Amino acid sequence: MILMPNNVEKSDLTKIISSLRQEMIQTGLKEGLTSKNTVEISQKLDKYIALYQVS
């Protein structure tokens, strides 16, 4: 579970999401879309996107 402080700005979440998206793409290209690392990054990305949507 990802816990975010109350004072996190949407712009910060946007930067984190963008960074994770790039990391997921690079890992997917290198290791495959179903690799453990790619899936873990994807799940982390999903959590940050959900946080963005409710913030």
Q: What does the model show?
A:
With 55 residues, the chain is mainly alpha-helical. The chain has one domain (10-54). Helix content is 75%, strand content 0%. The protein is built from two helices and no strands. The longest helix is centred in the middle third of the chain and has 22 residues, at 10-31. The protein is elongated and about 35 Å long.
Short description:
This protein is 75% helix and 0% strand.
Order of helices and strands: HH
Number of contiguous helices: 2
Number of domains: 1
Largest sheet: none
Distance between the termini: 16 Å
- Specify the overall morphology: elongated
DSSP E strands, number: 0
Q: Flag low-confidence runs.
A: none
Strand content: under 5%
- Radius of gyration from the alpha-carbon trace, in angstroms: 12 Å
Q: What average pLDDT do the residues reach?
A: 91
Which structural class should the secondary elements be placed in? mainly alpha
Q: Assign a percent range to the helix content.
A: over 70%
